[in-house]
Amino acid sequence: MKEFLYDGRIYYNPVEFAMAHIGGTWKIPILLCLRNGSVRYGDLKKSIPHISDKMLFTQLRELEEKNMLSKHKFLEKPPRVEYQLTEKAKKALPLIDQLTEYGISLMKEAGID
Description:
Layout: E1 4-6, E2 9-11, H1 14-22, H2 27-33, E3 39-40, H3 41-47, H4 53-65, E4 69-74, E5 80-85, H5 87-90, H6 93-109
C-alpha cells in the first residue's frame, strides 16, 4: 500500500492509522470502560488503575478529537460530565476483544498468569 498523509502525518499502512486511534497504554482501557454506556470522569479514573488525572484528561481529549467518544456536560452544580462511545469507537470493540484474546494466549505461552 502506498503511504498517505492525514492530519499532517504520514501513515504507511491502515494498521498504523487504526493504532493512531486506539493505540497507546490508556486508550483501550478507556474504551473498554465505556463499552456499557456513559461514564463520569471520576468513575473512569477509579476504573483505570495507575492513570494520572493529566493522562486521563489528555487521552479523553485525543479520543474526542478523533471522534471516538463524545462528552456531555450537564449544567448542574457541581458540574457533571459524562463520556460515551461513538459509533466509530463501537466498531473497534470486536477488534479490541480479539487483541485481548491474542494477548492472553501470548501470556500463557510465556508462562505469565
